[in-house]
Amino acid sequence: MTTTSASTFLKPFALRYSAGSSPRVVRRHTLPASEFRNLSLSDALSVFEIEREAFISVSGECPLHMDEVRHFLELCPELSLGWFEEGRLVAFVIGSGWDKDKLSQDAMTIHVPGGSTVHIHVLAVHHKCRQQGKGSIILWRYLQYLRCLPTVKRAVLMCEDFLVAFYQKAGFKDIGPSGIAVGPLTFTEMEYALGGGAYLRRNSGC
Ligand SMILES: CC(=O)SCCNC(=O)CCNC(=O)[C@H](O)C(C)(C)COP(=O)(O)OP(=O)(O)OC[C@H]1O[C@@H](n2cnc3c(N)ncnc32)[C@H](O)[C@@H]1OP(=O)(O)O
């Protein structure tokens, strides 16, 4: 098995202007208006606050509890992505490595280093920033980023039925009901093929 080298970590990249802002606006501080970067342990609390509002307040459950957020950000920060505006987390994705066709209960807690599949545990957008295209944008950026990781061939996730259309729009395919249930919640498993990596990597500035 291989481990991902530090050189594959995402270098933070700032967008020059936040959506709708004018290039002529002079900012009085040094935080980038908008930045995408891998998450680190120090982001765990911000991640969990978004999760608490997005999931726990709705169903009492969430994809990753605080200790699991910390676990994955420690084990595989290179499979996470955060979107920060003025230094504040507005959206994130957390993934881990996996190596089987379908997700099983093990996939909820383990990271398979160098696995050919990335299991996307959670995508969430801060509640004040939803329905503005941010979920679609960070997911698209994350998938582009995964194309640059040499061992990764596909991404998988499980979601509730009402989000199947959202993921289909992003290019995911429905691969049937998930074998995993959380209390009364059932899920559909979705897959995104990242194939053709060698050619794409040569031509995408990875
Ligand atoms: C693997 C997983 O993590 S599955 C769980 C996903 N996360 C959550 O449910 C947490 C709470 N929700 C969120 O954080 C966000 O609403 C997300 C991530 C689901 C979507 O992000 P947003 O920034 O709000 O979505 P965005 O603005 O990009 O919308 C894209 C499309 O998805 C649709 N959509 C967004 N949220 C939902 C929803 N909850 N139910 C149904 N459709 C939705 C929008 O209507 C839009 O469709 P349109 O283009 O036809 O108008």
TrEMBL record:
Where does it mainly reside? Answer: cytoplasm
Which top-level enzyme class is recorded in the Swiss-Prot or TrEMBL entry?
A: transferase
- Pfam families the record matches: Acetyltransf_1
Which PANTHER family does the protein's record reference? ARYLALKYLAMINE N-ACETYLTRANSFERASE, SEROTONIN N-ACETYLTRANSFERASE
Q: Which InterPro entries match?
A: Acyl_CoA_acyltransferase, GNAT_dom, SNAT-like
Q: In which pathway does it act?
A: Aromatic compound metabolism; melatonin biosynthesis; melatonin from serotonin: step 1/2
The protein's matches in Gene3D superfamilies, at most eight in alphabetical order, are given as: 3.40.630.30
What EC number(s) does the entry state?
2.3.1.87
Reactions catalysed according to its record: a 2-arylethylamine + acetyl-CoA = an N-acetyl-2-arylethylamine + CoA + H(+)
What biological process terms from GO does the record include?
circadian rhythm; melatonin biosynthetic process; response to light stimulus
**GO cellular component labels:** cytoplasm
Q: Where in the cell is it found?
A: Cytoplasm
Q: What is this protein called?
A: Serotonin N-acetyltransferase
Q: Tell me if Transferase is a UniProt keyword of this record.
A: yes
Q: Which GO terms describe its molecular function?
A: aralkylamine N-acetyltransferase activity
Tell me which family the UniProt entry assigns to this protein. Answer: Belongs to the acetyltransferase family. AANAT subfamily.
Q: Which UniProt keywords apply?
A: Acyltransferase, Biological rhythms, Cytoplasm, Melatonin biosynthesis, Phosphoprotein, Transferase
Domain N-acetyltransferase as annotated: residue spans? 34-195
